[in-house]
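Before relying on records like the one below, remember that each one covers exactly one chain. Contacts with other chains, cofactors or solvent are not represented anywhere in the record.
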Amino acid sequence: MKKILAISTLVVFGGFAQAQDTPKAAAKKCPASACPASCADGCCGTMVKLAVTGLDDEATAATAKVKIGAMAGVTSFESCAKSGTVMVKYNPETMKSCDVEKAVAANGLKVVGHKTAMKVKGLACQSCSNHLTSVLGKTEGVVNVDKVCHQSGTVMVTFDPKKTDLKKIKESIHTTKYKVVEDKAKKAADEPVAQS
């Protein structure tokens, strides 16, 4: 009986050890160059974050989610009533961010502006956060300074894309001693490839 117990224990632990050594499957990722017109898993596309009003009405929010989520070119739709944010990922080859805005507005939500978040270095204290909040608040086209946190180095703003863009917001930050930390992977992807 002891031999049977010992052998069964070895078999169980042997199987467990083998399962632990098996490499896990890598998460599926679409290369940007091969992104289909409609990515089923939402891995591809351009994301636009919109500040909206009207999400507190559950029926309106549900209708917007169904109708916008079903649009050709939209790969994902998420909303947060607490922050008043709608996040739509779409295929930039078939639609533009203004098309997304029009669809959101047509479904009972009022677009207040676009939201963006960025990492900023040089924020050392609450006074730094207050100073940058003041500078951004005076920047033309900035609708709201949602957050400036010196502890995480995060800046979140809502802006009117008809009056400003990310480049101008970054330039406004760079007029101070604080600097935007560029995402190296995104920056490399945005740079043109030299032709030989």
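The chain has a mean pLDDT of 76.
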